[in-house]
Design brief:
The protein has helices at residues 12-24, 30-42, 53-68, 75-82. By secondary structure, the protein is mainly α. The protein folds into two domains: 9-47; 48-83, no CATH class. The model has no long low-confidence stretch (mean pLDDT 85).
């Protein structure tokens, strides 16, 4: 898949909010945030059903254990651990 560069012009307040959001939720930069946001919008009807209910339960249990052991304290910690 070829990757093309695009330029994006944003109002200052949106740029600041995007930077804050990217940092809080573990995105490396605004480009990564914008790519994910576009992907979610463009492919919103293509739900990935490959994740089973059992796998979701396993992830929930792992998160609960990590939180109880103090390894993860916030959603920001989860995002950093996953990136």
């Amino acid at each position: 898949m070829a990757i093309k560069q695009v330029n994006l012009t944003l109002p200052q307040n949106l740029l600041e909010k995007a930077e804050s959001y990217a940092e809080e939720y573990g995105f490396r930069n605004i480009q990564e945030l914008a790519t994910e946001a576009l992907r979610e919008k463009v492919f919103e009807d293509e739900y990935d059903e490959s994740i089973t209910e059992k796998e979701i339960e396993l992830v929930d249990k792992l998160l609960a254990i990590s939180i109880s052991r103090g390894k993860i304290k916030s959603e920001k910690d989860v995002m950093k651990a996953l990136s």
